[in-house]
Design brief:
alpha+beta, Aminopeptidase, 7-stranded mixed beta sheet, about 25% helix, globular, binds coenzyme A
């Protein structure tokens, strides 16, 4: 997903400088949350068309193994690990730079959890990706993102698995991906299934 150019047809990660902004001459609506997708709109009648952003269910008992993937990434210098409390600013800065303030705020809640419910990918001691769970709701996965120039290398999948395994370790049998954007990514990597009637979910009545 190209988070900053609006090309994605999935969950749009709003840019910090342009938080899901659409301007149709009548006003500007700024939205900063994962579950809204303003990439689709109907220019003909000048109104935005919201894409479905369903919640997904993941069976945490059927997750694919993570170990071999961790080793492979490590051989390229990419480490996947839980974030430390004192890394809040570095992680927030990464999220604000590549995604949005809204996601940075959401993830801040994960830094208040013990243990921290945020995993990061690092390369040369820099953040290149993140995945959070239990931030906006209990048992929820997300938000998550990988730096655009690092995508397509298995980092997003490893972060997702690390988060879901943490959910399992904390006692859940099923995990929820709230307001999922790249639905196919979740279906493919962890066998996620659509939760019927889940759209709209919790991301409603958003502040402008
Ligand atoms: C979604 C995202 C985290 C995936 O990270 P990534 O590191 O690029 O993904 P991976 O390289 O681990 O991909 C794992 C597999 O999923 C596939 N995949 C990745 N993104 C996909 C997508 N949007 N749709 C379908 N399949 C996708 C890959 O092709 C790969 O398949 P393979 O194992 O057959 O090679 C990343 O694209 C991203 O940061 N997107 C912007 C933010 C975002 O949308 N976050 C989710 C919000 S709900």
């Amino acid at each position: 997903m190209a988070a900053k150019d609006g090309k994605s047809e999935t969950c749009r990660a709003p840019d910090v400088r342009d938080l899901g902004r659409w301007d149709i001459g009548l006003g500007i609506l700024d939205v900063g949350l994962c579950s809204l997708d303003f990439a689709h709109w109907t220019l003909g009648i000048g109104l935005p068309k919201l894409s479905p952003m369903p919640d997904l269910l993941v069976n945490l008992l059927n997750l694919p193994p993570l170990e071999s993937q961790l080793k492979q990434l490590a051989s390229h210098g990419v480490l996947i690990r839980r974030a430390q409390p004192f890394e809040l600013t570095a992680v927030r800065d990464f999220i604000r730079k590549h995604f949005s303030v809204g996601w940075a705020d959401e993830v801040s809640v994960g830094f208040a959890n013990k243990p921290v419910s945020v995993h990061i990918a690092t390369l040369n001691s820099k953040v290149i990706g993140f995945a959070a769970h239990e931030c906006t709701r209990k048992d929820f996965f997300g938000p998550a993102g990988v730096a655009p120039d690092m995508q397509g290398r298995g980092i997003g999948k490893a972060l997702l698995l690390a988060s879901l395994l943490a959910l399992r370790e904390s006692g859940y049998v099923y995990g929820i991906i709230g307001g999922a954007g790249p639905v196919e990514f979740y279906q493919k990597t962890v066998g996620a299934t659509l939760i019927a009637g889940s759209d709209p979910g919790i991301y409603t009545d958003l502040l402008k």
